[in-house]
Fold each of these.
Amino acid sequence: MQTATVTATGLDGLDDGALVERARSRDGAAVQLIMQRHNRRLFRAARGVLNDDAEAEDVVQETYVRAFTHLDGFRGEAQLSTWLTRIALNEALGRLRRRRLTVALKDIDAIDDQGEARVIYLPSARQDSDPEAAAAQAEVRRLLERAVDQLPEHFRVVFMLRDVEEMSVEETASHLGLRPETVKTRLHRARRLLRQSLDRTLSAAVNDVFPCAGARCARITDAVLKRLGLPEHVEE
């Protein structure tokens, strides 16, 4: 097992394929950079299913451990992000099934399908140097997160993947094993339900909901490196 600390190695310019090749050789810096690139998407996908921060973190850790110990299973036929997301969703959905708290599909499909198709506009997140404005936006983000948490799970995960993570209809359908038409219908219903409790003034915060950065990102990354027996990557 390696014990030396890995220093910055200038890997930022490498694409995911090149990083995977280095990760197969147990390059800790490459493993860490892969995690930093994909933490947010995996966390959002898992949280969309599980509705719980701590359990979503566990799913992300488990996803990376499985992926990095079975890199031979990654053939490069799909993007690394797609492969990792599929592992994360499978793990999250498996945990959800074990909870036995799934919402019956017949109840979801029975929800009235009236109302406008759009709940909020989704502009790019903006950075604000005004502390008061930043605090206000953080509060708006928390309100939106709570509203998303209240969605029925099958609507919530589609909303998270489509509107928050900005996956395509086809990619979302593939990950969830649904028809594209079903994805469109559930997204429409999710937006309509959110419209009942949210105003368009919340739109600026949507791309920032459920972040996976700072302490959370570091916590996930450090835990995975420890489980894999790899040294931490220290930036210089």
Note: The radius of gyration is 19 Å.
Amino acid sequence: MTGQTNVLAGLSNRSVEVKEYAVRSFENWGSPDCIEILDGVDCGETWLQEYINQVILDLEEELLSE
């Protein structure tokens, strides 16, 4: 839980690279909570938002196949 809180803070960072690594962390954890968190993110960067949307789709697919 502490890890998710710290990474969630990374999504609010000004640095696009920090935001990207935060998204990667949620992608690697792959839990339903990660989908909920990422679904509420609006990062402002088109390429990063597309990446977030793809991560959400991938996680949903992965969790549904279990």
Note: The mean pLDDT is 91.
Amino acid sequence: MSFDNLASSFGIAATGMKAQTARLRVVAENMANANSTSETPGGDPYRRKTVVFASVMDRALGADTVEVKRVGRDLSDFTLRHDPGHPAADENGYVKVPNVNTLVEAMDMREAGRSYDANMNVMQQARGMLSRTIDMLRG
């Protein structure tokens, strides 16, 4: 493996780590707002955000890398909770609650963490190979 290939390995892994970091930020925002309702009667609460990744050719690295294409919104329906005393309750006493499922968010967080760790392992392996190559050249 050449030095260029090792450098490419670092760059590819770094883009993966950056993408998963963005994903973790979105998951954290979703979880933080899992109970955020509107303040006006019948108003919409927080809407869950989603992350869409894209494969992008990085000419400098000579490889496909990953990046966040966009942060979108989950358009699934809100659930209704009967809470007539809530300031956001409609005329029938129902409050729209966010379309955030904390179990789904926890699974997304775990998956993003594992992907981040896998990219970190690639960087550590490439660093080890580079270090051993330098040691052999000193030799």
Note: Residues 59 and 101 are 39 Å apart (CA to CA).
